[in-house]
Amino acid sequence: MVCVALGCEPSAGLDAGSDAPPSEDAFVRDAPLDTRADAGCTGRPGELVGERSIDRGDLPLLSWTGLDGEVALLDHHGPCAPAGRVIVLRQLAAWSGHSLWHAAHTADVVAMDDVVVIDLWAADEDAMPMRPASLHAELARYDAPPTALASDPDEQLGALAIAGIQLPIIVVVDARTLHVERTLFDPRAGDLPHSIRVVQAHLRGEPEPRRPEPELVDGRFTLDRWDLVQQLGAPFVPPPSPSNAYADDPAAATLGEHLFEDTTLSPAGVSCRTCHQPSRAFTDGLSLGRGVEEVTRNTPTVIGASAARWQFWDGRADTLWAQAAGPFENAREMGSSRLFVAHRVADTYRADYEAIFGPLPSLEDAVRFPPAGMPGEAAWEAMSAEDRDAVTRVFVNVAKAIEAYERTIVPVPGRLEAYASGSYDALTPGERDGLQAFVSVGCTQCHWGPLLSNGAFFAVDMPGVGEGEAGDRGRIAALAPLTSSELRAQGPYSDDRSLVDPLAGLTMLPERTLGAFRTPTLRGLSQSGPYGHAGTFASLHDVTVHYAHIRMPHTRDPRVVGTLDPHLLGFEDFRIDAVTRFLELL
């Protein structure tokens, strides 16, 4: 699955080898600009003339919930303000790599004279509607704070988009009339300050300033796009795993590797490595994974899994150790149980286990500790609560050791990293064209950072297994098993019970999560086909065509569940081969 939530950057006049904007009109939508050199008042604060609608470019007195209360346009509506005073509204999302770049480069805009900047965050890093309480975390993304910060889960500025919502959406508004003077979609470095100066000049009746020539890296990338390329090539460092005290213990990792490969932990002779084969980028080469039986989803890679906030395609586990525990007790995957695993560890790995985790419980009494069993089975439920807890701790420690091993499975630096560090000849001209196309069409909205993934969830019209009510519901169906699991980061087997629950208070997920799946890493991509959460596409070219044509009229595949995310825009056919060429490099 590739280019999840692609943003399409209008590219009239661009070729695959250049990222230089040919003209402002290629990515800017203008409202009619009148010359308003008079310094007179246009009315009274809060009194607006005529019918007002966002899509027509006449803003009503909008308001949003900010860090410390209401953020309102009324507070910045100045009918008697000097001509040229503008309000810059920016619609952003924390999952969008392009939005994050603009937030991190706010200083140049807020430093401009007669400019008010109001940032409207539509969604958090998981693509969930932004909650006002989460805004504090977004402040850390800025090089200089905007005038005001607010949540806008309804993405109200999306009404100005032509087809699909391309982030960030930025509108420059006359503070005197609340009329939208200019709309920009994902502008490149330097374009926003220049557009503001153009609007101010028109409002003051002054000559339009000249557009500066963009600075290009390798003759292809504006500075913002080059920053994104450098993020793709940044070193990967596994983040902390506070719920697992053994996550970075070398002895635990060594034990975890043995457990990962051990087929005797499953009565059916299935191991973690059965599906996660190192020679296939820790996948299995099958459309649908197969353990004891065929399952309903494609096997994701383990490369960089330590950085995922949520595990599995639907995010039904919130730690890597909880994910490692899941397949053992899945009848289709390993067909094992926590009692079976605990007995096997006691028989084969006792010394190694006890050197790391301490003494094993006495499992020799077959009446107290049956040879197999797990929650929901009679043999398990007949045990005392104390004995069930003792076995579960062994089972969880096995999973934590496997996590320690999987944390060592990281991306291997290659030619992309060399190119991003400035060795331009590390990529062929065709691969550089492909990288330029990958960034330009907006794949880096979601596929950014060292793992080329934002870890969020999107419905991308990807066919799954089953149709209609029997179809794969994706993320929306994961909330119940996740919140009821005892193997949560906040649960009794976590090594840090103080961790904040990001799902606290949620009783249901938004409708947009129906049919939504996690943005996969693109590391090891060329070795990990077939692609998609159900292995629908055999080749990377097929995947690229899917995303290029995603907004074109077509017959809906009955295996698709959910509504296409509005942030996917598609792109031109002439980009398909170039994007594919880059993906084949990964």
| Poorly predicted spans | 1-18, 20-27, 31-38
Question: What is the CATH H-level superfamily of the largest domain?
Answer: Glutaredoxin
Which strand order spans the largest sheet, edge to edge or round the barrel?
Answer: 1-8-7-4-5-6-2-3
Taking the alpha carbons of the first and last residues, their distance comes to: 13 Å
Compute the number of structural domains.
3
Which geometry do the CA atoms define?
elongated
CATH fold label of the largest domain: Glutaredoxin
| Mean of residue pLDDT values | 93
Helix and strand run: EEEEHHEHEEEHHHHHHHHHHHEHEHH
Describe the sheet with the most strands: 8 strands, mixed
What structural class do you assign from the helix and strand content? Answer: alpha+beta
| Proportion of beta-strand residues | 5-15%
Gyration radius, to the nearest Å? 27 Å
The percent of residues in helical segments reads: 10-25%
Secondary structure layout:
Layout: E1 28-30, E2 63-66, E3 69-72, E4 86-93, H1 97-103, H2 107-110, E5 115-123, H3 135-138, E6 148-151, E7 169-174, E8 179-185, H4 191-204, H5 223-232, H6 250-261, H7 272-275, H8 320-325, H9 338-348, H10 350-357, H11 378-381, H12 385-406, H13 415-420, H14 429-440, E9 457-458, H15 479-483, E10 517-518, H16 540-548, H17 576-583
Parallel strand pairs: 4-5, 5-6
Antiparallel strand pairs: 1-8, 2-3, 2-6, 4-7, 7-8, 9-10
